[in-house]
Write a structure and sequence with these properties.
The chain is an alpha/beta fold and 322 residues long. The chain has a single domain, classed as Rossmann fold (3-Layer(aba) Sandwich). It is 45% helix and 15% strand. It contains 15 helices and eight strands. It has an eight-stranded mixed β-sheet with strand order 3-4-2-5-1-6-7-8, sandwiched between helices. β7, α9 and β8 form a beta-alpha-beta unit. It is globular. It binds adenosine-5'-diphosphate and magnesium ion (MG). The site of magnesium ion has 4 residues, from α2.
Length: 322
């Protein structure tokens, strides 16, 4: 099932998948710090950790029961709101991941509509937020497909090193495959230059090449290579709390403002920041929303994607690994 029409109309959040099949390019660092800055700017933000290595969960020090993770929501029958945890930033909430998520790859393979599980979870919670980030793992597999199908936008961190450009072509081809085979409109594909060192010639050249050759938007903000960014997760803090004046912090702040600025019309319609008293009421609000949702479901017949929708991923990069 794809999201019901009524839910689509109510969409509030911009859902951004942070994606690159290469590991160590700055996906998690970007997802955590961007989410934290947007929360600080008064946006309600949810960060979904969708990597079995759960770096975002541990990097933000999110505590949770063993059965309250994204895996348990998607495949373990856990109620979706149970896996949404607070962080110590007022407006930032996190859905943790755990190594169990690796099992989801195997379990999903034989399920109908296996690509849409995360999309359905996001559809249930997106009205509560202004931004939802999905931190993906370093692969192009069924979890990645779920992540992309749940998102409206893709943010691709590109590390300033020689092999980055090669990987980019493959990733863009995969996104095209998903768009063509599953009919999902990912209209906004954006690259972010990370680990930039302006003193290194290679770094400058890669950044220039990305700006010249990347067929979609490349953010103006460039994330410098910065020790503070690497250190912050071991203190379980986003950079804005760990070293707010460091070059890395300033770059992520600039990126957050760029992302807000580029969509002024969407920014206008968002919620004010949640007050502490509101947060106490939040569980109750959630119940009311759930009831409303159930009512909507009664009123409208569900919009089903035909089970036998013909598609297959011709590319071995999908077929082999799922
Ligand atoms: N701009 C940066 N400068 C220095 N170190 C960074 C930077 N961005 C990320 N790192 C570090 O590099 C490693 C990989 O980054 P990470 O965000 O976990 O990548 P990914 O999620 O793509 O695997 C981590 O140790 C992280 O702290
Ligand atoms: Mg990561």
């Amino acid at each position: 099932m794809v999201p019901q029409k009524s839910r689509i109309v109510n969409m509030m959040a911009r859902v951004i998948a942070v994606c690159n099949q290469k590991g160590g390019v700055g996906k998690t660092t970007t997802a955590m710090n961007l989410a934290a800055y947007l929360a600080m700017l008064g946006k309600r933000v949810l960060l979904i950790d969708f990597d079995p290595q759960y770096n975002a969960t541990s990097g933000l020090g999110v505590e949770h029961a063993p059965d309250e993770t994204i895996y348990h929501v998607l495949l373990g029958g856990q109620a979706h709101e149970r896996a949404i945890r607070r962080s110590y930033l007022a407006n930032l909430e996190v859905v943790p991941a755990s190594p169990d998520l690796a099992g989801a790859l195997i379990e999903l393979v034989n399920l109908p509509e296996r690509e849409w599980y995360l999309n359905r979870f996001v559809a249930k919670v997106r009205d509560w937020y202004d931004f939802i980030f999905i931190d993906l793992g370093p692969s192009l597999n069924l979890l990645t497909v779920n992540g992309l199908l749940a998102a409206d936008e893709v943010l691709i961190p590109v590390q300033c090193e020689y092999y980055s450009l090669e990987g980019l072509t493959q990733l863009l081809q995969s996104i095209e495959l998903i768009k063509n085979n599953l009919g999902h409109s990912l209209n906004s594909i954006n690259a972010l230059i990370t680990m930039y060192d302006k003193r290194e010639k290679l770094s400058r050249e890669i950044a220039r090449e990305v700006r010249r050759r990347f067929p979609y938007r490349v953010y103006e903000a460039e994330i410098p290579r910065s020790v503070s960014l690497a250190e912050a997760p071991s203190y379980q803090k986003p950079i804005m709390l760990y070293a707010p004046q460091s070059p890395g912090a300033l770059a992520y702040e600039e990126l957050a403002e760029e992302i807000l600025g580029g969509n002024a019309e969407k920014v206008m319609g968002t919620h004010p920041p949640m007050r502490p008293v509101e947060r106490k009421l939040a569980p109750l609000e959630n119940e009311v929303r759930l009831l409303n949702e159930e009512l909507e479901m009664l009123e409208e017949p569900p919009f089903e994607l035909p089970v036998d929708t013909p598609y297959h991923f011709g590319s071995p990069m999908f077929g082999d690994r799922i």
